[in-house]
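All the exercises in this workshop are built on plain-text protein records. A record pairs a protein's sequence with a compact description of its fold. Backbone structure tokens are a discrete shorthand for how the chain folds in space. Once this layout is familiar, the rest of the handout is easier to follow. As an example, a complete record with its sequence and its structure tokens follows.
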Amino acid sequence: MQLPDFNFDLVGLSEMSEDLTKAIRLYPDLAEKRLRKSANNFRKDVVAEEKKAIKDDEVRTKNKLTTNQGFTVGRTRGYNESMEIDFSAKSKIFHLVENGHNQVNKTGQTVGWVEGNHVVKKMRDNYSEHVMPFEMQQLMEDITRECGLN
């Protein structure tokens, strides 16, 4: 038994194909802009939280842990869904402030433990749970609006 042939005439398929092609070509630029914006906002939020956690400590302020200059947002790497951006601290003591460290006296004996403030870890968790899903939704809306698919 042979199935009958069916012919479908899809009206507007070529227009939709053009719109989807435009979306695919537009996506990397919009995604990179949104990722860079998110990284810069991440840096601002980390600095604001560091200011709250550190308060009047001259050494940490001198090491720029409470200014935007103390942190670097790298270049965007990758393509499409595998884009990434590096975030790092310039300060030599950042890892001590973030993770905690042994307090040592002049003779080299450990006299206590200074707890880390874990600001970047908390901010990273906050961004992965709340901010980035919102940013991805905004990106999808931007793409559909730019391509006329809305």
About this structure: Residues 15-147 form one domain. The helical segments are 13-54, 58-62, 94-99, 119-147.
